[in-house]
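ok so heres the complex, three chains, lmk if somethin looks off
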Amino acid sequence: MSQPHTPIIERVIEAGLFACGALSVLTTAGILTVLATETAAFFAEVSLGAFLLDTQWTPLFAEKHFGIWPLVGGTALTSAIAIAVALPFGLLSAIYLAEFARPGARQALKPLLELLAGVPTVVYGYFALVVLTPLLQRAVPGLAGFNALSAGVVMGMMITPMVSSLSEDALSAVPRGLREASLALGASPVRTVLSVVLPAARSGILAALTLAISRAVGETMIVAIAAGQQPRLTADPRVPIETMTAYIVKVSMGDIPAGTLEFRTLFAVATALFLLTFAMNALGQRLAARARRVGQ
Amino acid sequence: MSALHPRHNRAARRWEALFRGVCLGAVALPLIVLLGLVGDTVLRGLPKLDLDFLTGFPSRKWERAGLLPGLVGSVQLIVLTAALALPVGVGAAVYLEEYGSRTSRIARVIEVNIANLAGVPSILYGLLGLELFVRALGLGRSLLAGAATLALLVLPVVILTTREALRTVPDSLREAAAALGATRWQITRQVVLPMALPGILTGAILAVSRAMGETAPLVVIGALTFMTYVPDGVDSYFTALPILIFNWTSRPDPGFATTAAAGITVLLVTLLALNLGAIVLRGRLMARRQGSP
Amino acid sequence: MSASTPKLRAADVRAGFGDKEVLRGIHLDVAPQEVTAIIGPSGCGKSTFLRNLNRMHELVPGAWLRGSLQLDGVEIAGADVDPVLLRRRVGMVFQKPNPFPTMSIRDNVLAGLRLTGRTLGRADEELTLQRSLTQAALWDEVKDRLRDPAVGLSGGQQQRLCIARSLAVGPEVLLMDEPCSALDPIATARIEDLIHVLRESYTIVIVTHSMQQAARVSGRTAFFLMGELVEVDDTQSLFTRPRDKRTEDYITGRFG
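and the predicted structre for the whole thing:
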């Protein structure tokens, strides 16, 4: 729509609205600037090699190690457990909602499932520490008070609606003709879903998973409360660990003065976190785009 | 009994029913577990739930701990956050949907940015807020800094939901208004926005709910975990319900677990009331739309 | 006309969706090893009727069916018949070719058997593969690229692949719902030739919006109009000496 005689006020309004939109670009620029400057200062004192090759993280101790891997390991462990919970529940829920539920049931159940995502994460952290851990300690020998398992399970609950909703979109996008073809051959509805619909929805489901993993990696409160503050590289879900996000919270809350190397470790970890989640989000978006193309 | 009788397919039908049952269970089980966790928590917090708790202040002794500063702080935060995020978010959405031509490069750049920002972990917003609002702009560890940070955090949500709401308005209406000689802003303000209002409201509520439950960015900003007075201005130190809950949960004394549970109950009830109120309001708005001439 | 049991029999069939009645009392017999065409203007219920013959109609929420449908004299619409088992005897080819995109040509043909849990030995699989593709007049064109993705074939080839896929399951009846409407004339001609050959082994019911096609491929033709079966007769007779005026109006092009 072109407006040959635009009064001044129209142009002012348009500029104002543009500024609102541009704010998002400024926000991104802001985050990148903050991370970049502080991280650059960090790497002025600590070599990249130490960061990437050391397997100990003890920046606040007397003997300092700056290897990022224990924190990455903690994040990876809790996220893996979260996905192990969210994938089956999310995918099977999606199958139920997309393929088996009556329209009325689907409309009622979808918002209920979204409730899981609406619970504040600090509440989930409480659930993990105060309710779930004591319960699990009766079943799992050697489960510590702070551990990756409780936090991971609860995180899994939280991201289940994300996996479910995105997978459901992927399943619904599979053309009806494929289902009909399979049913017309005499395949049962379940067989049709498992052997025809699910493979066709592969990309979309993968996209859902990737985005869910990214969410789990970026989660802070649940792990800060329940997973512990002992950075260690381990695959044992029963012991305390520390995730990248929990470390950032810990340092923020402490009384380490800003501008010191110790404080800057926070930003180095934050940059690593940013790069990880950014890469996964980008991958997830690309998979989702591919899913949309194939769905023809 | 023909060869087509179901009993010839009995084994397969049993697997069918079993699989369907498992899928239904996958929907039901997390909900049941959530119900159990919430129920357990509410019950655990009951001893602390009384007027003293709601009007009291945090204390070293769990018996005397109250959450008034957190409650007031949370309310102040979400009001301020909404005041900051809604105009900007709706403005950005309007720009992208109504003004920016779909193929213009700038609009694409903005869109990609918003999509990326939606996936950035909330704690990183806290770091941005710390360096930008608290330090660079000199707002200190104030309510305003906290609200500005949360506003940036929920901006993508507001923009995305507002855009969807704007898209539901049929183009024919825009064309009709244009044919009457209205300018783009007149069309937007008088035709499109009123029609999209219910959807925009939904986005607003989503954003505010999210802001109310956020903890990590506020912790990084420097919200107080222990506050003995009520925040009294946009430049005041502040706290929020989730921060108090975080603090109580982290204390080893089991009495504080009870306190945390009570705090959680208050938080959940507040969120529930917020969302229910929004649903009612939206229903009213939509009914008015359908009924009015 | 033979006096034996019809392969398919519809008696007073009524069907619809929710409050909408689409079929109003259809009586139709389909003889074995014959091609029966169903013609009529859009919305007359011919697809709905066809989809009831393999109980695909009931998959739509709100769909309902009354009356009697029989295959070889046995009622097929009741609760004492498993639709999954029925569909292995009554196959269907759809308007838009729908090969499974994640499978190769080979896997598509064998999909029907695998999806219904009937695994054959390697040798038997190869035999079925070749036989089905030959019956569908596709073998020569794809025999050197059986492992290529099915979606790489042209529209006409994909449709013949779908036919091969349906045949591999070993049905007795083949339902075809406007199988050529998405194809070009050459591909259409090839499929019509195919139908002539298949007629000897299968009972075929084909819904088509092209009267010329009905005249070319079928032995009997049924004319549907607004949910009713107006007239059914030998194809020759229906097109040269229609008994009902509505039929005559339709085939002379006064409407539809």
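quick notes: The longest helix of chain A spans residues 8-45. thats all i got rn
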